[in-house]
Amino acid sequence: MRTTRPLFKAAAAGAACAALAFASACSSGGTTDQDADTYTWWDPYPQHAEGSDWAERVAACGDAAGVTIERTPFDTTALTNQALLAAQEGTSPDVILLDNPAVSTLADTGMLTTMDELGLDVSGVDENLLAAGVVDDQTYGIPVGANTLALYYNADVLTAAGVDPATVTDWASLTAALAQVTGNGAKGITFAGIGTEEGSFQFLPWFWGAGADLRQLDSPQAVAALELWTGWLEAGYAPDSVITNSQNTTWEEFLTGEYAFAVNGTWQVNSALEAGFATGVIPLPGQNGGTAPAPTGGEFALAPVQSDTERYDVTRQIIECMTTPEGFVETATTFAYYIPPTADGQTALLEAQPELQPWVDAVRGAKGRTSDNLGTDYPKISEALWTAVQNALSGSASPADALAQAQADAAAATE
Predict the structure, then answer these.
(1) What is the DSSP code string of 401-412?
(2) Predicted confidence band at 15 (pLDDT cuts at 50, 70, 90)?
């Protein structure tokens, strides 16, 4: 998933309402009057039209299984809501490719088969990436790839300021580097603090990198993370625009060549190579060193419950086609770039493109937003968190007060 497609504010409300309507009924749902030689596939990629590389890739997996795939793309939010509605009506597709934080929403309704029931082996998938599809110890999907965040840098700006990016290993050394580059007349760091899921997505590496927990938004560790961001604004190391920046606008700021650093994702790899200045990538640092866990993006392949259980064998073959080491690499390059979620797939990708090693490392250290069995509580917690970030960045509340309110709001919402 590219997190430039915000999900939760709209989808969670619709999902919750729909879930109440069919929590017990969807277990008997599934595609009705379906041609035995046609399998239905829904994904969140309307930008990849018929005839695109992605559409051809999906079709090829149908060919390999001896069937025709009827593919329907949706906007991410629309896909989640449509999937819930289809399950209620008994018209679920055979395969859904869904943004990973929404997997628990669908699983919570009972509309998905488990991977054990489907007969799909997921033992080779990196545990941290598979976690977004695990609810109450049951696995409801398999990631077809993952992306995450790291710290892009402008090598020209750093060189001019005498900063070696290899020395940026914790918050103190990053802040010192920002002081050095701004003291040299350049701009420091840009990130996305917008009041949407993108804002939470970008804040989480700092939140988790301080050792904070999403069940306790007002912990000292969480306050330290938000104080880091507000401190950068107060010192002039980050622009005021971060409060409204999406990940796209953050990247546009970085491409001006004026900034030393930008927090952004795997999906900007090609753009960084085409920038009018030398760029590089380093991990997002934890407060006291090491690589901070960044949130995982990317889609899971899911198999909705079908009334005709004989369809599952072909469904498994279609999903397997997407999740071989070669299949993972093909997905990675189609989306420029997803990182394969298995060691074999990552090795195959690096053999072809060794320059992606920093991103493989970042994905290996990443963490699912719904991990720790947060499930459908995550969207409620996330909204409270991004609201706290907004309040602190705008100066309407201190980081401690903003997060205390966030914890109260999250606790009330998840009772």
Answers:
(1) HHHHHHHHHHHH
(2) very low
